[in-house]
Automatic annotation (TrEMBL):
Transmembrane regions listed in the UniProt entry: 57-81, 93-111, 152-173, 179-200, 212-236, 256-280, 287-306, 312-334, 346-368, 374-391
Organism: Glycomyces harbinensis
Official protein name in the record: Major Facilitator Superfamily protein
InterPro entries per record: MFS (IPR011701), MFS_dom (IPR020846), MFS_trans_sf (IPR036259), MFS_Transporters (IPR050171)
Chief site of localization: membrane
GO molecular function: transmembrane transporter activity
Residues in Major facilitator superfamily (MFS) profile domain copies: 1-396
PANTHER family recorded: MULTIDRUG RESISTANCE PROTEIN MDTH (PTHR23517:SF2), RESISTANCE PROTEIN MDTM, PUTATIVE-RELATED-RELATED (PTHR23517)
Keyword entries, A-Z: Cell membrane, Membrane, Transmembrane, Transmembrane helix, Transport
GO annotations of cellular component type: plasma membrane
The organism's place on the tree of life at top rank: Bacteria
Protein topology in the membrane: Multi-pass membrane protein
Coiled-coil regions listed in the entry: none
Localization, UniProt: Cell membrane
Amino acid sequence: MTTATQDISAAQTVYHGPRRPFGLQPLEWALGSCHLIARAGGLVRPMLVLYLTQEQAMTPTAAGAVLAAIAVGDVGSQLLGGWLGDRIGRRRTMVLGFLGASIALVALGSADTMPLIWVAAIGYGLTSELFRPAASAAVADLERGQRVRAYGLQYWAANLGYSIAAVSAGVLAGRGYDTLFWINAAAMLIAALTVVTAVPETRSTAVRSRRGLVPALLGDRLMIAMALIYIAFFTLQAQTFATLPLLMAAHGHGPGTFGIVLALNGVAIVLLQPAAIALLSRRDRATVLAVSILLVGTGGGLAALAHSGTGFAAAVLTWTLGQIGIAVHFGAVFADLAPPDLRSGYMGVASSTWSLGAVFGPPAGTALLEHADATWLAVTALIAGLALFVAQRRAAASLRAREAVRS
C-alpha cells in the first residue's frame, strides 16, 4: 500500500517539549484545557432547537434543517481545519477557528430573519470544529509515546466539558437564550487566548506541505479503508444515542429516567477514561479498536431489546466501554497513518468520520425503528458491530506495518 513517505527523518518531524505532571507536556495540558473550555462553554447546541422554535417561531422541520446545515458545516469545518493546519500551522488554525466561532455565535444569537439565521448557522458550522484537526495534528507532532495519553486527555476533557454544558445550558436558559450565546462566544474567546498564550507551533520547520491532500489520500488505500470503517462505526454509535429516548419512551420511561441513564455515559467516561489509558495504551491497537467496536454494536443491540431501566442502563454502559476503548487508540492510529507533511489534513479526515456519522446515524436509526421495529434495530446493530469488528481485524496487519514505518 502507498504510504506517501517523505525523505525527512522522524526526529525532524517531532515536537519536543518539557515533561510536567503525569508525564504530559505543557502543550498537552494547554490543548486539553482548550477542549474543556470549548465544550463546557458550548451551551448553544443543546438548546438551539428550542431557541429556534420558541424564540424565532420556526417550525420543527425548519429548525431541524438549520441543525442539519450546522452538522454538514461541521464536516466541512474539520476538512478545512485539517487543510489549513498543514498550510498556515496548527496554532493559527486553532485561533482562527475559535475566533470565527465566537463571531458566528454572536451573529446567530442576534439574527432575527430567516436569511440571517441561515447565514450565521452555516458560518457557525464552518468554524465550530476548525480547531479539532489542528489540535489533533499538534498531538501527532509529538513523540509517539506521548500521543495516546495526550489524545486521551483531550477526549476526557471534551466529555467533562459536554457534561458541564448539558447541565448548565438547561439552568442558564431560564435567564434567557441570549445568555447562552454570549457565554458560548466568550468561551471561544478564552480558548483562543489559551492557544495564543500557551500553545506553541508544533509543525516542524523541516516540513512544509506542497502536496495535494486529495491525491495523497486517493493513493493511500489503508487510510481510505480506515475512514470508511469509522464513518460506519460512528453512524452506528450516533444512531444508538438517537434511538435511545424513543426506545425508552416506548416502554413507559419518562425524561427523568432517560436523563439518568444517559448521564451514566458521561460519568463513566470521566471516571474510567484515565484508567483505560493506563490499562490499554500498551495493548495491540487494532485489537482494542476491534473489540471496542463490537462492544458498541452489542450495546446498541441490547438497548433495542431492553425493557427495564436497568436493562437500558446496562446497554448504555456496554457501549460506553466501547467508546472509551476507541478513544484510547483512535487518534494515535490515524496519527501513524499520516505522512509528516499532511498530518493535519489526515487528522481532519479522521475527525470528519465522527461528524459524518452524526449526520447519517440519527435518520438511519429512527427510520429503521419507525418502518421496521426494535427487533430489527437490534439485529442491525449487532450485525453492523460484528461486520466492523471483522473489517478492523482484517486491517490489523497493515496498521502494524504502517506503525513500524512511522516509528
